[in-house]
Write a structure and sequence with these properties.
Elements: H1 4-7, E1 12-19, H2 25-39, E2 45-53, E3 56-66, H3 69-76, H4 79-85, H5 88-91, E4 100-105
Antiparallel strand pairs: 1-3, 1-4, 2-3
Amino acid sequence: MATPTDDNPNLLTVIARMTAKPGKEDDLRSALEALVPITVQEDGCVNYDLHVAEDDPATFFFYENWESGGKLDAHLGAQHLVDFASKLEDLLAGGSEGLVITRLKRIK
C-alpha cells in the first residue's frame, strides 16, 4: 500500500494527538471532523486523515502530509484552526497542553 511520502519523501509528515475530556468525546470528534473538508482544500495539504484509537475512543490522531513547513504554519494560522484552538480548554484532557503535534521527516 502506497503512502504520500512514497512519491515525495521530502513531504513534512505530522502526527497530532489529542484526548477528549471525559464526556466530551462526541464534541471533540465533531469539531475534528469539521476541520477535514476545509483543511484538505488548503494550499500545500497533501492529506489530512483523522483517526481514533482502537482501544480508546476518546483519543484522536491526525495523520497529515504537507508540502513544506511553511504550508503547515499557514494552516496552523488559518481561521478555522484558530477557532478550533479556542475550544481546546473545554474539549481536551489537559486543555491546550493536551494537543501534541509532532513534525516528522521520512528517513527511508
